[in-house]
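Run Molecular chaperone DnaJ through structure prediction, thanks.
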Amino acid sequence: MMERLESWKLALERLRSGQSADWAEAGRLVAEIVRMSTDTMLRQAAEQALPVLRQAVDNDDHSVTVAGQRRVGVILDVIHDLTAPRFGRRNALPKKLSNEERARRTLGLPLAVQLTCEDINQAYRRAAKGMHPDQGGSAQAFIDLAAARDVLIHPGAHKDA
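Sure, done. The structure for Molecular chaperone DnaJ is below.
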């Protein structure tokens, strides 16, 4: 798949760098990407570009040409993202959240902001309205909200997991 991406990238860059683009060739190439790509983002970008590229064939309208060039650029951006080397540890698990970070996420609070008790209670009330069992929420979700509020109001009382 990687060599196919590279060949598509080279062909699209060649088409884009030419003086006058061969829109029929670009349309064929993009149709091939739609048919053969396994990546959802690339396939969507190509599907969205296809009508514009077909319209650009034998069309002297400058706005259609610019739109075609822009669509080819979007496809190239997606291909560049797919072919760019990845750095870092492969298959590394995400960093485990602390109890406080988990509680903030549960209540929908920002991670890096100093919170007052009033901020925490307002967030709890806002979240509890939809999570309460009488309002169609689950009992466990409501209990989790209360536990998250307690962790944030009394941070020293709870050990990190």
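The radius of gyration is 26 Å.
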